[in-house]
Design goal:
about 80 residues; mainly beta; five-stranded mixed sheet; about 0% helix; globular; binds zinc ion
Length: about 80
């Protein structure tokens, strides 16, 4: 499960996970655009996204379900 290895989530924070290197960053400041239900986001860390302009970002809720974004359309 993706939440293993993270410390307990504090209010107003979000966990980050880099799918490229597996780095986990607990309780990072949330972005204003982050979905409210999201507790975990898969995003490339600064080391892994060097040189990339756009990095994919996937949000997950507390039950481990990926949150689809408006631009992705219906499931
Ligand atoms: Zn990384």
């Amino acid at each position: 499960m993706e939440y293993v290895g993270f410390t307990r989530l504090r209010p107003g924070r979000i966990h980050l996970y880099c799918p490229a290197c597996g780095r986990k960053m607990s309780n990072m400041p949330r972005d204003a655009n982050d979905p409210k239900a999201a507790v975990l986001v898969h995003i490339y860390c600064q080391r892994c996204c060097q040189g990339c302009k756009e990095t994919p970002m996937y949000f997950f809720n507390a039950r481990g379900k990926r949150i689809r974004e408006a631009w992705e359309g219906p499931a």
